[in-house]
């Protein structure tokens, strides 16, 4: 009686939503087809076409198709990817990414020896020259050909002197040679659109760049390496296994032992606990990113400065 009632409830829940209908009524089959049937069910549940997933993003004129041309795949972008505004650094980087990154770099880069024959991940020393033949800066050119690059596009990085004047001159030369100025975060956007990163990894790239402590950097780096994504994949796989088990038992009730409701509830509880733990971790992650403001209060000469110095050394 309990199994029959459970079947009615499940079928009512899942058959009322045709978009995400995970249960279906198959024609009766002999018992010998049981295990093949369960494998087929799991394959159907795992199929990417079975669910109607959509990625909704704010429309960007650079990402829509114009005159049957995919702008993302046809535009080569360039930008300074090292920090500006602080004290001058020894080295700065101008990055190009897109289908014409190598050809644009070839128009501005002149190796000291021979003609430039770009080989992926092989460094070449030379100079950047503008359209008038003037030397702009001495650089190291590092081509990273698709798909072995951050964006999974052809990428060329020009390692220049870190002075802001040098970097902006090199960037302007690349733009004059045919590149388009990249928008903030566009390299990571392309990495996401090209499947190099998932959404959580892309978010953690920004968190790592903005990290103000070792703990925040470690947490962001773990996210980039797929820590949270692995949890989501695990939860999805366990849900599919559970749905497959329930469906098989509902369809072949006479050939299988009674359904173990307690076992099913235990699995659901474990998955629910994993979700709760992930939510708690997200709150801790927000604290790492924003930091914690505290005041050390006490009478004079009781060790407040010593405590602060000890914390500072530990943070280093």
Automatic annotation (TrEMBL):
GO CC annotations, alphabetized: chloroplast; cytosol
Domain GTP-binding protein TrmE N-terminal: 76-196
Keywords assigned by UniProt, alphabetized: GTP-binding, Hydrolase, Magnesium, Metal-binding, Nucleotide-binding, Potassium, tRNA processing
GO MF terms, alphabetically ordered: GTP binding; hydrolase activity; identical protein binding; metal ion binding
InterPro entries for the chain: GTP-bd_TrmE_N, MnmE_dom2, MnmE_helical, P-loop_NTPase, TrmE/GcvT-like
Signal peptide: none
Keyword tRNA processing among record annotations: yes
UniProt domain MnmE helical: residue ranges: 199-293
GO biological process entries: tRNA methylation; tRNA wobble uridine modification
Coiled coil: none
Localisation per UniProt entry: Plastid, Chloroplast
Any single Pfam family the record assigns to this protein: MnmE_helical
Name this polypeptide is given: Uncharacterized protein
Source organism (scientific name): Pisum sativum
